[in-house]
Known about the structure:
By secondary structure, the protein is of the alpha/beta class. The chain has a single domain (3-311), classed as TIM Barrel. It has 14 helices and 8 strands. The protein has helices spanning 21-30, 50-61, 67-83, 103-124, 140-153, 176-184, 199-209, 224-233, 241-247, 258-263, 275-278, 282-293, 297-310, 315-321, and strands at 8-14, 86-93, 127-135, 160-164, 188-193, 213-216, 236-239, 267-270. It has an 8-stranded parallel beta sheet with strand order 1-2-3-4-5-6-7-8, sandwiched between helices. Helix 4 packs across helix 5. Residues 12, 14, 164, 192, 215, 273 line the site of zinc ion (ZN). Zinc ion binds at residues 12, 14, 164, 192, 215, 273. Keywords: Hydrolase, Metal-binding, Zinc.
Amino acid sequence: MSITDLPKIELHMHLEGAAPPAFIRGLAAEKKADLSGIFDERGAYKYKDFWDFLRVYEAATSVLKTPQDYYRLTRAVLEESVASNVVYTESFLAPDFCGGGDVAAWADYLAAIKQAADEMEREAGIVMRAIPTCVRHFGPDQAKKTAQCAQETVGDFVTGFGMGGDEAMGKQGDFKYAFDMAREAGLRLTTHAGEWGGPESVRDAIRDLKVERIGHGVRAIEDLGLVDELAEAGVVLEVCPGSNVALGVYAKWSDHPIAKLRERGVKVTVSTDDPPFFHSTMRSEFDNLAETFGWEEADFVALNTTALDAAFCDNATREAVA
Ligand code: ADE
Ligand code: ZN
């Protein structure tokens, strides 16, 4: 078996960010929305840098208007995951885009997403769990609304709470109230940190939001003392190397610190983030890691074990997936 055929555990993928461009173009045509400006001549998403990426992302998301649209999106995304032999996936869902933070509207969107996930589990064996996320540049008050959405729907499917968006806006600690609400509801926590912010953003996330996982976290490498603390505390990094290279956090794969972080004892896992935006899949992530760092099958099996141990699911699910 080749390395890319291995079963995979993915912990960090944004549902809207995983929308195939052709799917979004189809929805735009149905809804008579003009999205031509966000695609290049080959039909791929087009953006200049991270902040432009966020704009294009939100424009693409604007045609996802109904729970039925999200049902179709979820099926389309999970079909891509199955093609990479992903057997367990955690997907970030933004209540801000699913009803604007209104709990009743969110529950309708979530039911449609869960229906698609349940069908795909029956049809293709893939298990999905949902992590509602607030969007950092929408601010702390809106984040409280998303935490309330998460709190009201916590259960077997909704198992975590997180934050994405523009890491340059405000501080992690500004979102403490929302994260405290989520923790008290029994949700497990992760936040994007150390992608566009430096090591201090990772420190803030652990101290102020008390997260057990960090989305990206790679810029911790700029402070080796912090790297050792992460290793010691067993904080898990959801590393998305293809995303980091595509968005320019690192110029090329060989500059990426994932191997150094791992060698120094940090628990690293690998995910795609927003695969069609970065022309990536879980297969291509594995392939690039093998090629760049010489990782072999045993390394990838260990990577999957770390990811499954850190998954926001119960032990029965973990055992069923293993
Ligand atoms: N939302 C979707 N992708 C993201 C990323 N790479 N960083 C922050 N927020 C995001
Ligand atoms: Zn992300």
